[in-house]
Sequence to fold (213 residues):
Amino acid sequence: MALVCAGLVGCSQVSDGIADGLASIGAPSNATGEGIRTLSLLGGDVRARGPEGYCIDQGASNARRGFAVMAGCALLSDDAAVMPNLDGLIMIQFGAVDTASVVGNEDAFAAFLQSDAGRALLSSDGDLANMSEVATITDRAGVLARFEDTADVPFAGTGGPQWRGFLDVRGRLVTISVLSFERDALSRSEGERLLVVAMAELAEVNAPEAEAE
Fold:
């Protein structure tokens, strides 16, 4: 679990094949308008891309540290009027080189997240009293987790359960977080679906064939 811990500490803050059937959140592919949907991170070694209808919050992101924040394009750009059907906040954090630790260890990874040590690492302050139990799903795309942390919220205006996905991308452990806005909270299934789509988009944009194209 050493690599797991290393990847998790680096964070800023379903059934098999489910990703194959979820191509988008519902917005048309050109819905980003003047917003930026894709961002190169870590000197161009990797890229972040959100589901359709999501754009990069450049002010909140830190490309040099491998961290990206995404929200509905209309929230970030005056020139983009369309919002995704599933409206949440997405955060992506790439770990260091050689921290990849999900593939082949999915069950062990999920078990660690459900343990006291894993829950403490997922929490914002390390206090298990503020953490719910962690529900996990292992999938070909990676490991998904759902939990609630009552100690703090990463961004103002968000709250309730959090969804977090873990996958390997180019030798790095990557963490994807999905948060609900208090004004329109995501249901359990909506949050899970948004997370799976976000994980699929990230894997696709970093695939060797995508880079060649």
Q: What stands out?
A: The longest strand covers residues 158-169. Confidence is low (pLDDT under 50) at residues 9-33.
